[in-house]
Amino acid sequence: MESSPVPASIRSFDLPGQAGVLEALLNRGVDDAPYCALICHPHPMGGGTLHNKVVYRAMKALHSLGFPVLRFNFRGVGRSEGVHDNGHGEQDDVRAALDWLEQEFHRPILFAGFSFGSNVGMRVCCGDPRVPGLIALGLPVVAEGRHYSYRYLPECKQPKLFISGDHDQYGPVAEVEAVVATASQPKQLVWIKDADHFFVGKLDQVQAEIIHWVQGNFMSGTR
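and the corresponding structure tokens:
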């Protein structure tokens, strides 16, 4: 099954959050889309925003399947109010985005996050019955002196896709494999050959892997 082009229609708006409004973009999907999607961006201290290239390509992958896709800036980023909270308050930002999607579309929500966004977003989405599947791109282990914990993964029962580069400076192969080994099934780990943390020159492969996994797990007619 190949994805079909979806006419681009983007809504820019302020999403209400606990620390104030969050700058958000919604790429509208088709009216009968079976899912909607949420994507979280990388670390703000590294310049991460909703316009990040990896986040954008994840949006393109999910939107090509017809899904409405929400991106937003964490607190203190861009026009989002509040201040950076080292991944703590940002979990409330993710909850606010999930609540908005649920109220807006009344359908299951697929989650995807890149780097910091994958860690924070999965922490919130694991175990949330509204979220049937999770995608972690560039899973970070140690980055710029920040150590990331994944103690929640053994209890994360939803299907999970992990995509990392085998030259990821913030998620070396052995460390990422050790983290993924703790995650409950079902799960899939995909290594992008010769890719760094930001998947430079490899974003087409990342986009294709997302589409393939979503089609196989959520659109094959077997679930």
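(Above: one complete record from the training split.) The helical segments are 53-64, 89-105, 116-125, 173-182, 203-218.
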